[in-house]
Structure formats: C-alpha cells, structure tokens
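Let's study a protein:

===
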Amino acid sequence: SEAGTMISDGSIPQAEGVDLTGVKGFATIDGVSLVNVEGTGMVGVPGTASAIFATMRDAGVNVIMISQASSEHSICFAVKAADSVRAVDALRARFQEAIAAGRISCVAALDDCCVLAAVGSAMASRRGVAATMFAALAQANINVRAIAQGCSEYNITALIDARESVRALRAAAKLRDEYHLDIRLEARGEPLDEERFAAHLSDNFIPNVVALDCTAAEGPSERYLEWMRRGIHIITPNKKMNSGSLERYRALKRHQRSSFIHYLYEGTVGAGLPVIATLQHLVQSGDRVQRIEGIFSGTLSYIFNTFGTDDRPFSEVVKEAKAAGYTEPDPRDDLAGTDVARKVTILGREAGLPLELDDVAVESLVPAPLRSLPTAADFLARLPEHDAEMDAALQAARAAGECLRFVGVVDVAGREGRVELRRYPTSHPFAQLSGSDNIIAFTTQRYAAQPMIIRGPGAGAEVTAGGVFSDLLRLAAYLGAPSQASMPVRLAFRGAPLNLAPKAAPHRPRAVRARRVAPRAEATQVGSTYANALIEAAQAENSLEDVHSDVDALAGLLRENKDIAEFLSNPTIRVEAKKELLKRVGGEVGFKDYTLNFLNLILDRNRMDSLDDIVEAFETEYCKLTDTQLATVRSAVKLEQEQQFLIAKKLQELTGSKNIKLKPVVDESLIGGFIVEYGSSQMDHSVRGQLDQITSGMKSAAEKL
C-alpha cells in the first residue's frame, strides 16, 4: 500500500530516521573570556580572519566559539580564561602596525564569561527556537554578549556573564515547556530580612519571580526598585510607594518602562475594584481626564451613610463603626483623611499630575483639641463634646435637600488634589451608597456629560485579595511582553525611547522665597504630556540644553512669523506639506534632527493646535529642572548686554535662583527706564511708573483737602 501523509509541526517533511524534536538539552562552559578585535581597517580586507586565527593557532590557544557581524567591523571569539592574556598579547604583537596606523582600534578581552548552548537536532528547521531562547534570557534580565549558530543545526550558542550561568540555564529551559506556567509558593514564618529575602528570590534561578507585598509598611516599598533591578516583579496593594516620594516613584516607573519587569498595584485604590486599570485604559486610549472624584474610604462611607438616618449623634456612629471593625484601632487614623489623601495622590499621578502627598489639601474630621490625646479611648470619650459641630453641618445640608459625604477629588484641570467633607444632592450617585461601599466618578473628554462610575466594596481582606490575585493573573498574561505601563506610542529619539504616556513632570522641591509666586496658569494636559515626554527623552540623551535651544528658537519663530503658525495649524493643508515646511525652516534655523522628529510626531498625531501649550509647558518644566527664573524686561529702548547682565544679577539676589533667563521687550510707552516682571512680582523703574506715582500722590492729597 502507498505511504500515508506525515503530519508534523515542522515546515520541512520528516525523512525516515531524522529526528525533528528540536532541543534536547542545554550545556554551559564556564571559565571563558571573550576576545574582541575591532577596527575600520578590517572592513572588506581579505585575510583578516585568517591572520587572527592563525595567530591563535601559533599561540596554542583553542577557540571555543566565533561571532562576526556582516559589517566585518569586528570579530569576537571565546577562549578559555586561562588563555585570554596570551591571546590578547599575541594579537597585539601580530597587528602592531595596524594598531599604530589606526586600522585596528581595539584588541581586548572580556573576562568572567560563560558559554550557554542549546543542543539538539535540526533546530534551524523549527521556527521560533532562537526567538524563544533569547526572549527567555531577556525576561530573566540576562545580557547576551555574543551569539553563534552553526549550519549543522545542532546548537545555538550564546556568551553571557559567568555569574548568570545557572540562572540562564533555568531561563532557557522554557524551550522545553514554554506553554506551561509554573507558580511556586513557599511559606515560611520567620522575621523579615528584606535583603536576604530579595537575595533568596533572585538567586533561585526561577525565570519568573514575583514578590507580593501585602503589608502597609514603608520598608518594603523603599526596596521595590532594587528588587525590580534584580529581576523580581512586584504586585502590591501597599500605597506607600505610589503616594510617597515623587522622585522615587518616577525612578521606579522609568525602570518599569525600560525593562521586562512589571509593577502592578490595582489594590492600592479600591481594593478589588478596577479603578487603576480603568484610569490607565482611559489615558492610554487618548481620553483626557478632567476630574476624578470619589468616596475612597470604606470607613467614612459607612459613617456618613449611617449618620443622619436616625437621631444618634456623630460620636455614637463612630463608636459603632469601630465596634463593627470598620475603623482602624484608633479611629483618628480614618477621620484624619490621610488614607484618602494617599489614594488621591496615586490617582493624580496616574492622570499626569506631579503631586506630592503634602500637596493634597486635607480637611481633617478630627477636632483640633482631640488630635494630641494619647489613646483612642480618650479620643472616643471626648468626641461627644464636638457633636454639635457635625450636627450643624448635617442640618444645613438637610435644609438644602443635600447629604454629607467625605470625598477625595483629583482636579486635573486645576492641577490639584483635595480631601474634604462635601454636600451632594440626594439624587446624586454619591448619595445612593449603602454600607461601606466605595464609589469613583471619572469625568473625561469622552465622559463629560455623564461621568463613568465605578462602585462596590473598596476594603476588606477578600476583595483586596481578589485585586492582588487579579494582578497576578495579569502578570502571567504579560510575561514575555514589554511592560504594559507605557503608552503604545513610542518614537526612536537618538536611540532613546520617547514615551508619550501622560505623567507628571519631575518635582524638585525648593525653598519658599520672598515674593516668589507660582507661574501663570499651567498649560493644558496635552501640552504637559508632550513636553514631559520630550524632556525625559532629552535627559536620557544628555541633550536637554540642545532641545531647549531648539524649542526657544521655535517659540520665537512662531511668535515673529504668524504665516508659518497659521500654515502649520491649518487642517486643510496636507501633513506632508507641513512636514516639508518644517524640514526647510528647521534647516535654516538649525534644528536638530530629534527636534524635527518630535515636531513631525505632533503633526502625525494632529496636535499642532497644542504647540503653544507644549512650548509653554516645556519652558516651565525646564526652568524647574535647571533652577531658572524667567523674567520679562520691558524698556523704553533696547538694553545693552551689560545692562541686562546687571538686571539678571540683581534678580539672582532677590529670588535665589541659580539661573536667570531674561526676555527683553521694547515698550516706548515707558518713556524711559525699565520694568522687570518675574512670577507675579514686578520692579518698576520706568519714568512712566514714577509719573504714575506722582499723579496718584497728588490725587490723594487733593482728596484730603
């Protein structure tokens, strides 16, 4: 009978006696050095490789693996560590003339390496073997120094750091069972040594390790970044990291965006409610968040859902909530509003605001005389003394057909966060709560008329555990993919990724100085988003000053040439035509390539109408980063450089700023002299100002007569 059809997962028919099972195992060779020979004089020169390996033969050095790029600019190969010095000395002697002439720029050895090999049969005939192997190494944070694969298809070889050899073996084992999820739980009761705990996880050589921090302590959160750098994923409902130091928080988020290590924290707001995920999806999909408002405390939700339903005073409702287990052991911890402020800070940062916890204005419900009492019992005993204050607020709300609710507010447009006791109509969704439920309303560009509402239990062991486990399942789905924290829009910016995820600008605390007032109204959220992305990319390339010069030139160009500004913002003109104009103008002005790339991105995303806001936001954040005070100098005639220098020096003394940036403006109406405007302060040394003072004084004197 005729032979049937062989069905297999390979693309090449299986011949009789040929095993196409792919990878059979893995092996390592320790004690290896990588020798690199590099230079432009090697490109296209026949016999270079022959000379290199003939030298190795004559020196008695065995070559373990060879790797050469198609550019022929370098050849690297592995030798036993004991032979590395002899190999380098022999090559330098052999190519002494070429090195002196600059044709070969480098002959060096990298020690403490290890060769990792995947061994099998017909691996080149099976799709994805190399991809899976190197993806597994990347997930395990293992850097590959060199790669080689022979045409025999019997092995794929990679050279890595020696200290990562065992971990690499474990990671590469994913080739054998790549579709199986191995979750290992280990429970042991002992005092926590955070350093030893991290070492235990990172040195166990399990490809995917996650730490679940279900504490409310500060200590573990301070180590998240260190743990992530060791390749440990983090899942936590602990609010301390996301509401703590903004600088530390942003450092962690930057690492998350640039690595395969994930940081998930759905449980920090709303326990198991999908609050964080919903906000991230809104932002990443391009919606513009305007306001987030919610009842974030299950304790205070219960108290104000109960207070007023009968004749019991406020103090009795608080005591009942404590007895039912809704409050902390000391109810002041809930009534002070600090926990709600942390949640407001977390959501504000997710929405793009540079909030510190101290920036959130909190209306505490703990009467001032009771805040310093030593015990919770003392507090509860004296709380009835202040029932009249809360009863008056309740009666005022009732008279207006309203109810009391303790809420947290993220005002994105106003760039602030607040925690306060507010009144709502009885028809409002916040008035319809019962028990200890949370409710959160998202007002966005899409959900402006009818905010998006999330409601449900926002506290408790079971729902919090559900939120943590949800993050664990999400992590399992993410493994192998770049971190989901970043926006899908990324642009190559001189080798650095340009991330357009809305986020806060770096915060640099500064001392309050006399007459120093916040700058004028902040730019729009879109302007801040793009400006912060440009600043972050410029910092990554140490090009902040170059980019600032380009942005400064662009602002001047748009200010002085309205035709160009109108052309770029005209929706009827093709994007290609606008890009061509930018290229021509940029060439004349001297824009850097990366600045033009950024402007082209703005055109592609139809954000040219926000260019003024982007420029303004960039200038504001640049000044914060560089401790620069902006000042406008209006003078009757153009000031000389020496005069400008003296004004800038005086401003440094007044403001304490490291740098002063003057914007000179000629205003002939001043008659003579000048006016300096910085922040909301002004120094008027103009003739017109003096005349105005004289006139005002004469009017005052006349009125007294």
In short: Residues 631-702 form one domain. Residues 4-21, 178-186, 480-523 have pLDDT under 50 and may be disordered.
